[in-house]
Amino acid sequence: SDRVQKKTGVALFEKGGKEAPVLESAKNFLVEHYAHARLTIEFCAWLAKEELFTEMSAKFDLANSKESFLFEHLFIIDEAKLMKLPQEKVMHLFTRGWLGWIYAHLMSLSNMSQLVDRYAKRSASK
Length: 126
What we know:
single chain; two-stranded antiparallel sheet; about 55% helix; about 130 residues; alpha+beta
């Protein structure tokens, strides 16, 4: 077929029909991605059931510009509610590996303004 590229690219199958390493790697990536997505859904459902989400809005005005960013309807983990969880629920988070995710999330919230600043610097240099 004239639709098959024969000059560049990586073969998905070796001679004899065996999957090439690149195809195996892609399939493994998709399987892992699906597993992580399912775990994320489970994690978020647990947080919602425990009513640990709170809605947030944030506005960032760019320095030396009239441009601004408005983030609305962001759901973040409420640290005050988290601190009030009973010990057995905290242990559930810990044993599932989710406590680390929560603290990474909480720490990342402070990076929002830095991301906007980086965007402003990049836009100014264009």
